Every structure is written in C-alpha cells, then in structure tokens.
Amino acid sequence: MVDVDTSRRSPVNSTLGDSPGRIGIVCYPSSGGSGVVATELGLALAHRGWQVHFITYSLPIRLQGFESNVFFHKVQTDDYPVFHHPPYTLSLAVKISEVADLHGLDVIHVHYAIPHATAAYLARAMMAPRSLPIVTTLHGTDITLVGVQPSFHKITRFSIEESDRVTAVSDFLRRRTLESFSVEREIGVIPNFVDPGLFRPRERNLPFCVDPTEKIVLHASNFRPVKNLPAVVETFALLSKRIRARLILVGDGPERGETQELVRAAGLEDKVHFLGIREGMADILGCADLYLLPSEHESFGLSSLEAMSCGVPVIATSRGGTSEVIESGVNGFLSDPHDTEGMAKTAIEVLGNADYGKQIGDAAREHVIEHYSQDTIVSRYEDLYQSLITV
Ligand code: GMT
What is the pTM of this model? Predict the structure, then answer.
C-alpha cells in the first residue's frame, strides 16, 4: 500500500494489461460497517488484480500494512476562520477528480451516500467531457437516519438519481430508499459479505477469559444510539443471574460513557470489558459463545454476519434487513430489540445447552458460507463495474 502524492503526476490511460481495471473507493475510514465493507471489498479486488485507490480522510481501519495494487489518497481539508465547518465535500470532490485523472480511474465506487455520492457527482462534472462512472452503495443510516433529514433529503435523492449504478445492502434498504426518496431508478441488492476462512471458529485465547466454564457474550459497534446499548447491558444483567458469563464490548462512540455508567449501576463492572476499537475482530469473535445486536434497526448487520461466520449464535434485532439473513430459531435468533427478557431467555437456552448452541452456530456458519462468502459477493461487484467499463 502506498500513500500517493497525486499532485504532480501526468494522466495515465486506462489500459492495464491483464488487470481488470482501476477503481477509486470512497468510504468512511472508521470502524463502522460501511467502511469495513468498502475496505474488505477493495482488498479483495486488489487480490484479483484491480488497481484500487482508497480516497478518504484517514487510513481505513482494516487497511493496515502494505498490499500490492492498493493505494491510499488522503483528503486534506483546508480550514479558514470564516468557515464554521471546513467544507469536506468540496475537498473530497477535488481529490476524487485528481486521482481519477492522474491514475485513469475506470470507475468510482462510493460507500454511504452522504456526502460521498454528492462529491463523486461534483468530481465527474469537473472532469467533463471525460467520463467517470459512479457506483453508489447505500449502507443503512445514510438512508434511514441521515438522508431523510430535511437538510439532506433533496441532495441525497439527487445524488442517488445521478449515480450510474446504485446498490443497497438489503432488500429492506432498497425498499426504504424507494419509499423515502420517491426515486424511480433501479437499485440492486448486493449484501454484505465475509471471508469464512478468516472469520472461523477459534480456540478461546483472550487473556481476560481464562475460566473455560465461563461463557463469553460479545457485542461490537460504534456505540451510537441506534445500537441500543442499554438493551445489551440489560440482557446481559438478566442472563448473568443464571449463567456464569462475561460481556465483551468492542468499539467506541458517543454512548460509551453512558454504557459504562449502566454497567456500574448494575454492579457488573467485574464481568464487563470495554475493549475499545480493535483490529483482529476475527480472533475476538471466534471465541465468543453468543453475539448480541439488539439495534433499533439494522439494514443488514455486518457484525452479526461475521459472528455467524465464526459459528457463534447471534441474537439480533428483528427490525430492518436482518430477517433476510437470519432464520430465527434455525441459524440464529431475531428479537424485538426492547424485549430484553425474551433475549435473556433465549441466551440462557443457548448458553446453558452447549449442543443447542453448537447446532445454531454450525447452521449459521453453513448459511454464511453458502450465501455470503466474499468470493461470491465480490464477483457481483466486479460484474457491476464491468457493465460500466465496457459500455
Ligand atoms: O451503524 C453502523 O453500524 C454503521 C453503519 C455504517 O454505515 O458504517 O452500518 C450500516 O452499514 C453496514 C454495512 O453495510 C450494515 O451492515 C449495517 O447494518 C448498517 N447499520 C445500520 O443500518 C444501523
């Protein structure tokens, strides 16, 4: 991987020998699901010979180390006292157009509509008459929470309309987008994916989980209100009255302080670990006994997919697109996210009966391998790009 100075190079043409092409990927570099999907997609494409250019304000969390065919372009914003906020969208648009020109990008794929799809639209307009096909992938809150806000609604709709291809990570999100924005265009569904070779069952190796008779309950998120952290703590408080267990919380965000307070108030400090943002999620997930994701809604639920791939039984919210992935009682469980008693009851059944837990976990892994393997889903994105490059 190279941090490229794009400012002094001459344009290259789009002929790349055996390489399928050059792609720019725009995403949020933080630990949120959209950035993780974008990064894993870019890395997988690079392994397939694509030249991949990440364009973000910092190095994406899963883009550590050096990889061939992978380039990183930092978006620099310039501040000035007159600005209340530096206009990131403009700096991003300029950077996209520079990278596209200098490296001969065949396509730009933006993850999370706001403001990335708008910046890509501006970049394409600045580059005319040279074309730059735009693929926009909608991930969830860009539509359900942010894009629908009055100050963003019109520009979100416009940017979706102006993209050459639009995908959503679930049919729930596709339908929600059509309803909320009255767009008439086609939106394809390409679900989240996982590498089952990496996300696999593992021996327990967490230093603070030394007691093999103690069950490990896990939750990972960006600690935003939509993740419903109080339900995680409440469910754990109820189940831990019956089962010897430990709760591991991975990630960070605005609700962390309140969550710590809830844990303290419930007298669970000695049983709950806050790990913060971590690399190596596969290692952590692979040794859990149960994964909780009681969000207010999830368009897909990438973290629960990763847990399922590790053979870990999941209790996830029933609101959103999770029912497209989980068949409740067969390869995981769906629950109203506020029914903490119901979730605790299910958790006790799963954790209290190792055979039952293994049955659900095995079914989950099998389901993921069959439908959500990286190899299969990345090929679908490649087909999408090829349909734009060859027209
Ligand atoms: O809310 C998050 O977890 C972050 C957010 C994001 O865009 O980074 O996640 C969304 O995208 C993920 C990847 O496609 C989906 O798996 C999540 O379900 C979705 N989150 C929500 O819909 C709340």
Answer: 0.93
Rounded percentage of the chain residues whose pLDDT exceeds 70: 94
Ligand 1 and 199: CB distance under 6 A: no
CA dist 315 and 380 (Å) reads 28
Instruction: Give the confidence band of 208 by pLDDT, cuts at 50, 70, 90.
Output: low
| 351 part of a folded domain | yes
Whether 8 is in a domain gets the answer: no
Among 249, 250, 253, 247, residue whose Cα is nearest residue 223? 253
In a domain, 308, yes or no: yes
Compute the distance from residue 106 Cα to the ligand 1 centre, in Å.
27
Alpha carbon of 159 to those of 110, 117, 146, 391: distances in Å? 11, 6, 14, 21
For residues 137 and 160, the answer to whether their CB atoms sit within 8 Å is no
252/356 same-domain check: yes
* 325 and 302 within one domain: yes
Structural tokens at position 170: 């679930």
Do residues 132 and 239 both lie within one domain? no
Whether 222 lines ligand 1, by a CB cut-off of 6 Å, is yes
Task: Mark whether 83 and 110 lie in a shared domain.
Answer: yes
Tell how far the Cα of 81 is from the centroid of ligand 1, in angstroms. Answer: 34
Q: What is the model's pLDDT at position 17?
A: 62
